[in-house]
Design brief:
By secondary structure, this protein is an all-alpha fold. Helix content is 75%, strand content 0%. It has two helices and no strands. The protein is elongated and about 55 Å long. The N and C termini lie close together (11 Å). The model has no long low-confidence stretch (mean pLDDT 83).
Length: 71
């Protein structure tokens, strides 16, 4: 795999992390609940999961930039 393809893959995966992080609150609100309202824990859980996805994206990009170039 050449360097341009590797960069493209890294950027696409980073973009995927951010798309999921942004879409997560909207998707979670679509889940049905017994009361018809989202549980109170969602107010805490959703931002924590978004932060975890942001950390995952940052870690992935930082790890990819740290790897020595092969070839």
């Amino acid at each position: 795999m050449n360097e341009a393809q590797t960069r493209r893959n890294i950027l696409l995966l980073n973009l995927a992390f951010w798309v999921v992080a942004i879409a997560f609150p909207y998707v979670i609100r679509l889940l049905p609940t017994g009361s018809g309202h989202p549980p109170k824990i969602y107010e805490v859980l959703v931002p924590i999961i978004q932060i975890m996805l942001a950390v995952g994206a940052t870690y992935h990009v930082a790890n990819a930039l740290r790897k020595p170039k092969q070839g």
